[in-house]
Amino acid sequence: MFEKIPKPVARRLAIYYRVLKEQSKNGAETISSSSLGRMLDLKPSQIRKDLSYFGGFGKRGTGYNVIDLMKSIEKILGIDKRWNVLIIGAGKIGRALANYPGLIQDGFTIKGIVDVSEKKIGKTIDEHLTIEDVAEMEKIIRERKIEIGVLCVPSDVAQKVLNSVIQYGIKGIVNFVPKRLKAPKDVMIEDVQISLSFKALSFRMVNSER
Amino acid sequence: MFEKIPKPVARRLAIYYRVLKEQSKNGAETISSSSLGRMLDLKPSQIRKDLSYFGGFGKRGTGYNVIDLMKSIEKILGIDKRWNVLIIGAGKIGRALANYPGLIQDGFTIKGIVDVSEKKIGKTIDEHLTIEDVAEMEKIIRERKIEIGVLCVPSDVAQKVLNSVIQYGIKGIVNFVPKRLKAPKDVMIEDVQISLSFKALSFRMVNSER
DNA sequence: TTCTAATTGTGAAATTTACCACAATGAGGT
DNA sequence: ACCTCATTGTGGTAAATTTCACAATTAGAA
Ligand SMILES: NC(=O)c1ccc[n+]([C@@H]2O[C@H](COP(=O)([O-])OP(=O)(O)OC[C@H]3O[C@@H](n4cnc5c(N)ncnc54)[C@H](O)[C@@H]3O)[C@@H](O)[C@H]2O)c1
Ligand SMILES: NC(=O)c1ccc[n+]([C@@H]2O[C@H](COP(=O)([O-])OP(=O)(O)OC[C@H]3O[C@@H](n4cnc5c(N)ncnc54)[C@H](O)[C@@H]3O)[C@@H](O)[C@H]2O)c1
Fold it and tell me: Structure pTM?
């Protein structure tokens, strides 16, 4: 679609998007790369370069139109449409995500949550999502046109569960399991490794002179 | 402490650590950079280079002793000691973290969890942690020698809560709030931005030909 | 209309990070 | 003791990413 985009760019675009959304709520009409940079501790040139991979969104002398840029980033990130999401594993983290407004607001619709545990199946989360049987997963994925699976199962079953999810046609995974999973390369996996952040913090704290 | 360490290295060390722990459970005595690399989809030379910043842990011809390397990485990451952690905000994500075994196993002790909500204060999570009043936070931090705070509060109060936490002497924050927070530079903040991972996945999915 | 101030878009330089290639080393066999 | 094989540690190079610097453009004032 576009030429070669440095990998960190997509992530930063999502950060810009967050700020733009906030600013548009506050009624700002335009924003400059330098004011954005100040808010995010990034160099203005970084921001301009990032945006320039996708086209010229700004106006010289004025900056960027907040709404327009937001819309453009939505397109680039693919969140101008809604994604259908299934949460797999209704444990602590799965249930936390199930009602995370941040996701819903940004284009991800939680279409279901499944588990194996007899005790959990049938229970309702926040009065609008009912935990369903993982045995129904294939049907759920096909009927509700699930595109993204969120893996929140115990480590030792993660690969097995992933394999079936892929078999049912899912092409995108957000993986909360602290384990490197194997998948065909047309299946995108995005790892979220919370405990790595704690260790990275620890490292910085004991090496804080540098 | 050490010379100039590339920033991605600490994060990778934490990944190596995870695998080493798993391997040591499986009874492996040694591991080579190439087998580690295969498991993690990393070039062996990357792994050797990463480790070499901190010294020569391996033995030529044989590889690395799993236990020794694990211990060495623990030291480097600063998780050879236990860190005292306070969770701030007993909402969905705060409560999920409160009993995440991954953290406890890797050197982080959850010493408390606080909230403002009258309804939540006094309630017990998994029978061993009781939600306390955020008004007691200063006392808790000082008496229990809290070193790391985990921010799980709503976006609009995050900066205010952070400011007080810092005032009470905390030097490390794991921040789950999707917002760039300001802090003196001797306070380390590690951001965990779950919704960015979803957007990054979306981006990859709509641009998957590249 | 012309000038001024602000700000973008972008080649090119600088910096950071990853990768390669190979000498050095240790283990195990003969 | 010597050879062979596997594998590390690392200097040097390549690749990726960030930052700089400045011409180009726009808005608004004089
Ligand atoms: N709790 C956290 O804060 C946290 C943070 C980061 C990562 N994680 C990771 O997320 C995963 C889940 O953690 P958790 O704390 O929610 O654990 P949990 O034990 O609370 O939840 C796991 C859930 O998965 C269900 N499950 C088991 N096998 C299944 C299967 N085959 N199909 C569907 N569901 C199945 C279980 O019944 C359970 O409800 C773990 O791998 C954990 O390491 C957890
Ligand atoms: N739920 C998720 O999966 C998720 C994922 C990533 C990030 N987050 C972020 O984490 C934060 C919390 O999210 P949540 O889903 O747990 O929300 P939540 O509403 O369930 O929890 C927030 C908690 O903070 C408490 N609180 C409010 N003001 C406080 C204060 N001054 N001091 C102490 N506690 C206070 C509230 O009483 C509530 O219990 C939000 O910023 C959210 O964006 C949530």
Answer: 0.96
